[in-house]
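Example record

One chain of 488 residues, shown exactly as stored in the release files.
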Amino acid sequence: MTGAPASSVRGLFIGGSWVEPDGGHYEVIDPATEDVVGLAPEASRDQVHAAAGAAREAFRTWSRTTPEERAAVLHRAAEEIRRNLLPYAELAQAETGATTGTARGMQVGVGAARFQRYARVEPVEEPLPPQINEAGPFGGAAVLGALAVRRPVGVVTCITSYNNPWANPAGKIAPALAMGNTVLVKPAPQDPLSVYRMAEALEAAGVPPGVVNVVSGSRAEVGEAAVDSDDVDMVSFTGSTAVGRRIAEVCGRGMKRQLMELGGKGAAIVFEDADLESAVRGIGTTFSFYSGQICTAPTRVLAQRPIYDRLVSVLSVHARRLPVGDPRSPSTVVGPLISSAHRDRVESYVELGRKEGARVVAGGERPPLERGFYVAPTLLADCTPDMRVVREEIFGPVVVVVPFDDEEEAVALADDTDYGLIDYVWSGDVSRAFRVASRLRTGGVGINTVGRNMEAPFGGFKQSGVGRDVGSYALHAYAELQSMVWPG
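Predicted structure tokens for this chain:
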């Protein structure tokens, strides 16, 4: 058995206590070895609703604490996570199949950084210009002052994705707590053990009982209960667009606030004057970073015809050179997918691409490894805009390439999608790159980079989501605006 032993997961975390799950436990599988990592608690609907009730009760006092008090708890949580970075990363690696560098830096490291980021106290009041009102039906002439004040929403259900069990939950929990909300966290069923470690870190940091609650389960009813509880005021969800739609329907019936970070099919527009090596390195992260299991990946390459053949050739060489295998090995770049079911799904898309007429330039076969849920980095060339492999999110190490002739066609092809999370533009003409970026219907654009600025707003247009988070924008997302008006 790899990772943490099953006995180290004490149960559900409800109201500040570790509670035995009504549904027993289920196995969490290491996607690299297919061994059992540990046993995760299976909550019942009643237990999920009890957790929401505990969060509602705790909100009465937590929402009245000062921002400084809340910041101190988040700071101590960040320190606790950093102290335990190596064992936390080892568990995260066992649950997700992430490489060692990713587990330490991008998972646990970023998780700690996000708690530290929201330990910063920011103003919640914005003074508005005084307004001079003449005498009328509502009284005599007066000068009225006003403030716009951000208030906590209430109880927030945080439903997190399986590709990063540290950074994703931390990016929800930390800003929600900083604003005075309380949370009910429902981690992805594939890797919940790390989120319980996060709960332990918050408990050690002195978070009051009921402010943070964690429930898990392999059955859909656990997530459904976390959304439909009458005690929940807001749902923050990261995951597929299909599940996001179902959550939105439930939230709509109760007028619950939503923050949705959903699917993506990022277009990478590569003009003929681009630095091709830089573009290939950026696009190639789709093959390596989380094995393509990331919604921000540049999976849909639009290459201008004069450099189309060269880009396909260089990118295929890049894909074939990436070492695939045990994520614990220092030489590994591409680890496994999260599960056998997801591997089958990704492989079915590659086969679909073949049937649709795409040319498999690299990959397209299962790596010769005895165990683990691996898919070779795959490049599909000669694709057309109507192909399903071009239009649908595959969520694996698969890149498709479509040619274009001019700037107008590039923009049209990039926007010909249901999604709009992040696109990318590579060009040696910075003026053109920014001009094209401003025309794209997408929440973010990387210009000659796949890098992220962690203070920039993050979220999508169209079916890629609702709302924005990251940096100060996350504080706004987990707040309601209240206006206060008084005679000057």
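Notes: The chain is about 40% helix and 20% strand.
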